[in-house]
Design brief:
The protein is α+β, with helices and mostly antiparallel strands. It has one domain: Roll (Thiol Ester Dehydrase, Chain A), CATH 3.10.129. It has 4 helices and 6 strands. A 6-stranded antiparallel sheet has the order 1-2-4-5-6-3. Helix 3 packs across helix 4. The longest helix has 23 residues. The two termini are about 25 Å apart.
């Protein structure tokens, strides 16, 4: 995968500045997983002094979307991608450093191949789990990505 954390973080700065300003940063990415971190700060907090749910959602979506983007780039084809559906569960207050991990890269590879082979749109559900520095789960996000080869 030719996408690096540095390239993705530069992309955030110029194309998704709200995510960058909130402190969302890609830590690692490979063909299997993506890790994104965000630290609780004044700019990304809610009135309850924890990370606002939308900031958590941006970080979680980035873990999944970066994997989809990587596989699309590796395919060499023009493929559109879009979130069709999502849901989230919040378990614990998100304070301190929160790390979101998506390990569903293997699912994306299969869906991209199928979209290329069939020429039809495909969907895949991907999960991103956010944990605090103590390893406790704070939230889980699920995203349904659609991919389709452009004609």
């Amino acid at each position: 995968m030719d996408i690096s954390p540095r390239k993705l973080n530069a992309f955030l700065l110029f194309k998704l500045p709200s995510a960058w300003l909130c402190g969302i940063r890609v830590k690692t990415i490979d063909s299997a997983s993506c890790v994104v971190g965000v630290k609780h700060r004044w700019i990304n907090q809610n009135p309850f002094k924890s990370i606002f749910w939308a900031v958590q959602g941006m970080a979680a979506e980035l873990t999944t979307g970066a994997l989809v983007t990587g596989y699309i780039r590796n395919s060499g084809k023009k493929i559109s991608m879009l979130v069709a559906n999502n849901n989230a569960t919040f378990i614990k207050k998100a304070t301190g450093q929160i790390t979101f991990v998506c390990a569903d890269g293997y699912l994306v590879e299969d869906v991209i191949k199928k979209a290329i082979e069939t020429g039809e749109g495909q969907t895949v559900w991907m999960k991103s789990i956010g944990t605090n520095k103590d390893g406790f789960e704070v939230s889980t996000f699920n995203f349904e990505w659609t991919v389709k080869v452009k004609s």
